[in-house]
Every structure is written in C-alpha cells, then in structure tokens.
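[Q] Does anyone have a clean structure-token version of this?
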Amino acid sequence: MAVGKGRRIRKPIKEPADAGRTYRLCPTSQQAERLLEWGHTCRAVWNVALEQRLYVHRQRRVYLRADEQCRYLTEARHDLEWIADLPSQAPQQVLRHLDRAYDNFWNEEHSAGFPRFKKRGARMAIPLPGQAVRVTRLNRKWAFVRIPKLGEVKFRLTRPLGGRIKSATIRTDGAGHWYVSFGVHLGRAVAPPNEQPPVGMDFGVKQSAYLSDEAAPRLMPQTLTEGEKRRLAGLERRRERQLTHARNHRGGKYSHRLRETLRAIAELRARQARRRLDFTHKLTTDLAKSHGLVAVEDLRVKQMTKNARGSRVEPGGRVAQKAALNRGVLDNLPGERRRQLVYKCPAFGSVLVAVTPVGTSQTCGICLQRDPASRISRDVFVCTKCGHTDDADHNASVVILARGLRTAVGKASTAGHCGEQHAGAGQARPAMSRARPGRTREPLTPHPPQPRPLRIPRAARNPCGAPQGGCQQVIEFRDAPATPLN
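[A] Here you go.
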C-alpha cells in the first residue's frame, strides 16, 4: 500500500486469466507475411536467450532471469533491425515464458522437461500482453483486434469474450492457418455442486469412451471420410516419390510441387485434428454438466505409447503392431480429455477423481474379484467367481466408478499439473522420477540460487581482466546473426 500527499493509495490487485478464447484470424497477405517474420523472430529470441542462459551457467554458475536479459534485449533492438521490427512487448513475453519453463522444470511436482531449442519448422507463436491489444466488435460474427505495428486484423467472432483481456497469443496450426488466443479474466466463482449422479468412464481404443451408466459406448465419428483417406494415402505416396527425387537430383532442395504436396497433407491433418478436438470438447462438456462426480483412470500416456523398437543390443518385437496401438491410443486424446475435465468439472459443479488403472480390466464390477482369466477376449468379460457377464469396457467403467466413490470423499482430484492452472482446489498427481544422469547441462534444483558475483584471484587474471584459460564474457543478443536463426 503506497502513501501519497496525505492519503493512502491502494495498489491494484492483479487479476489472472481464468479462461481462454481462441478465434480464427484472417490477416491480409501483407499482414500474414509480417506475422510470419515476427514468428521467426520470436523463435530466434527464445533460442538466443536459452543459449545465453546455458553459457552463463556453464561459465559462471549464474542463473539468468528475464529481468536481466531484458537489458540485453533493449541493446539488441538498437543494433538489429529484425528484432526492432517486432513489437517491444513480444520478446519480453518470450523471456517471461522462458522463465516459466525453467520454473516448471525446477518444480519436482511438474512433469515438464528441460527447455528445448525451437526448430524452424515449429509452429509460430507471437505472445503479447493484454494491454497491448484492443478488440473492436464489427457485428455479430466479425471483430477487429488491434496489434502494435500491424494495425487492425479481422477475426471470426464465434463467441463473446466475456471478460477482460489479460494476454493474447497469435499462432499458427499445422496447415499454416492463423489463430488468436485471448486469456481473459471472468471473475467467476466455483459453481455449487450440481447434485447429478456419479459416473465412471473408461477410455478405450476401439470404443472411444464407455460410461458406467450407459448401455452403449460413445464412438468418435470418423475424423476423415473414405475419400479423404484415399486422397491422404495418395498424397503421402507422392510425397515419398518427390522426396526421393529431391535427394537424388536436386541435392535435397524442395521443389514447388513438393511444397504443394506437403501443404495439402497438412490441410488434411489439420482438418482431422479439428474434428477430433470437437468431439473431445462435446464429450467432456456433457460429462461435467450431467454428472456430479466423474471418475477416470490415472493413465500415464507417455509410458503407454512408448515405441517397441528397443535397441541394437536388445531389439524389440512386434514393432508395427505396437505402433498401430499407439496411434489408436493417441487418436482418442486421453491426455486432452483429462486436461479439459480438470477445468470443466469445477465450472459446472462436478468433481473429478482419478483412480489407479491397475487391474480395472480384470476386476469384476459386481463382486470386485480380480482374475486375469475373467477377461476371455477383448470385448467380453466373464467373472470366474460369480459368473457376471458384461462388455469388458463397460465392466471396467463400473470398477472405475467404484474406486472413484471410495477415493472421492467429497474432494476433487485435479490429477496433474494442469489443475494448478484451472482448478482452485485438489491434490496434484506426484510426478514420475526424472533423475537421469547427463540429461541436461544444468543441475536439477528446486529453487535456483541467487546470482552471485564471480570472484577470481588477481594473479589468475589475464591483462584483459578475464581468468586464465579463456574469456568469460556474457553473450549478448548482438552476437546473434543479422537474420533469424534456422
């Protein structure tokens, strides 16, 4: 609380973004070209900033943060035109995102890995703070967003914002389409319990989802039609032929026709991803609205979908079958469903509970007797003790519900680090052990130590003031090339 001229001035309270809004952006050809340049610039700033932190820590054992790197960024904007062309707020947001990546890595309860360099083929993202943009509504379906140094860009207003804009990110998808995402503050309170019946849900491969209170599974519609599948297969065969020709006759240089083929494949893949995400949103919204408790399995998706190739010393078996199974698991988006339920359940007054998945497909939903012999096939479950017969996935959903009711005790389990961003209460799932020797060039410490000046004996210094054996000068942004890094 500050004091000024005899009266007390209360500091403004920071209102975090508690909801997200994503819209399709429709820039002109000139605006899209400039946004593409800005995306490469943001990627180069990330890569140079990460390399600077690694170099300083390797040489001086000092941890750099965004506040210190912003000083070098200011000098770089005076020296490099390709950084000066970017709005000043965007690279600052990039550095703050890098800080968050480091904090997530240091957090032992977070599953994030060490920050990595961004490739040129990665999706573009231009972050901006909320005060840097302004939205103007044109009519019921269209609106303008004012972006610094770019002007007003039109976007499709598919739903109202509903709150105050706290952040904005301009990004692309796999097909190169532009989107704008707003983080908004709605200020809504946690909804009261909706008093709906509980449900258990089993995520499958052949059957997308099976609920304990339904007699039939919920199947995801085909994300690609038969004609689109044939066209995709033909495009992939054409891509392989063109890639072989480019390697053998063009020195690896892509031709215009090859780029058109890659663009057509990306269009089909992006369309498939949108349809898959649409079904996932409808499923999770219905679960959160229609049930007071949602019990799901605490799946480790990364461990489930590891490839079976093995190594040269111990090669794996049935590699193609395991690859097909992995595609089927990932096609149903179990991690995305879990992430959406984490923030949708509290918004609709329901509770999310994650239970252990061990033995759910081998346990009877009536007598709770676990026996691997009861699962006589992929689709049929016959209990060896009580003779209960049911669909295997439906029986597993009943077991999941029974475990969820015992675990819940009126408390929601956010079950993952996503809950820390979207849910106000709950217990985070403990992270897997990530201690691997030589996995990073920085030590794994819960909290980084405060930077301390490096003390070097005077006798060990060179005439230039650097220690013997090489100069330890801090890398600055002016050391970057005059064009964005590849």
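[Q] Thanks! Anything notable?
[A] Residues 256-290 form the longest helix (35 residues).
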